[in-house]
Amino acid sequence: MAITLNSGFKMPILGLGVWRMDGKDIRNLLINAIKIGYRHFDCAADYQNEVEVGEALAEAFQTGLVKREDLFITTKLWTSDHGHVIEACKASLKKLQLDYLDLFLVHFPIATKHTGVGTTGSALDEDGVLDIDTTISLETTWHAMEELVSMGLVRSIGISNYDIFLTRDCLAYSKVKPAVNQIETHPYFQRDSLVKFCQKHGICVTAHTPLGGSVSNTEWFGSVSCLDDPALKGLAEKYKKTVPQVVLRWGIQRNTVVIPKTSKLERLEENFRVLDFELAKEDMDLIGSLDRKHRTNQPAKFWGIDLYA
Predict the structure, then answer these.
(1) What is the mean pLDDT of the chain?
(2) For the segment 182-219, what is each residue's pLDDT rounded down to a tens digit?
(3) pLDDT tens-digit profile of 235-281?
(4) What angle is formed at CA 29 by the lines to CA 26 and CA 32, rounded to 5 degrees?
(5) Cβ of 255: how many Cβ atoms within 10 Å?
(6) Cβ–Cβ < 8 Å for 102, 9
(7) Active-site choice (47, 162, 239, 308)
(8) Of 288, 261, 133, residue with least CA distance to 195
């Protein structure tokens, strides 16, 4: 299954996110994922593993496991490179050993102190607060993103962690419209207004935390996982699926792209088996009633400032 973006390119509705994947594990994870059937991989300069991803992809191409044109590869511009968009994209392409990206996203809608192209630093000021650069506008960053399309380095461009206000602004000043807005959304943080606004205006929504972050975000941010919800456990029993499979299927039936992350082979296989069943309308509505407006990914822990305040 795939969604056709406003750029005309098709994006697989199910992908694998590589956030917090250790470099030593990436080769086996990506090779196995391709063998299972994954064709969409979501990366970022800030994940500090583009080199290892690139090595795994090169092996997959060289051994004939898959062709480049059969994969959809996303990576992202870090906040410290907003004034160096073209150089940052080229640095990511070099690490990933690719000639072009299928999708390049503005990772966060804020520019921070430049720390060197591709270094993805999050510089803090003397008070321990993120050192925000107030001289570079998001419009300036976006027009540089558009240049990447003209140069043939990127097929589609998009945004990430943008709210309705910022997404509307981007639509107003863009010549090349954002194809995707990648946001946190899951049963406990549904953000229906933002999802519907994006879809109404031809922007595909990708859920970067489609399972609510599970154990990872509980450990890092002290968040509550939707995977323990009794209603979701009941639906899993009804459909003879796991709770993560039910949650991913819910995301797909909202017409959002889901990119769950896992470092376990059995979870890779489990997460991929979500295209062989369908949730009934009453069960979609039941999950819709579970919203807690609960954000699980909160970078304020590292940045000393709540950018969502």
Answers:
(1) 94
(2) 999 999 999 999 999 999 999 999 999 999 865 555 56
(3) 999 999 999 999 999 999 999 999 999 888 999 999 999 999 999 99
(4) 140
(5) 12
(6) yes
(7) 47
(8) 288
Neighbours of 228 (CB within 10 A): 12
Q: How far is CA 276 from CA 106, 233, 281, in A?
A: 33, 19, 16
- Maximum Cα interatomic distance, the chain, rounded to a whole number of Å: 54
* Other Cβ atoms closer than 10 A to 307: 15
At 257, the amino acid letter reads V
Question: Does residue 234 sit in helix, strand or coil?
Answer: helix
**Is-catalytic flag, 188?**
no
Q: Which residues, in sequence order, are CB contacts of 97 under 8 Å at separation 6+?
A: 54, 55, 57, 58
120 falls in which pLDDT band (50, 70, 90)? Answer: confident
Structure tokens at 47: 């994940």
- Amino acid at residue number 144: A
CA 194, 196, 202, 203 torsion-angle sign: positive
Q: What angle do CA 257, 262, 266 make, to 5 degrees?
A: 110
Alpha helices in 112-229 (DSSP H): 138-150, 164-173, 192-200, 214-221
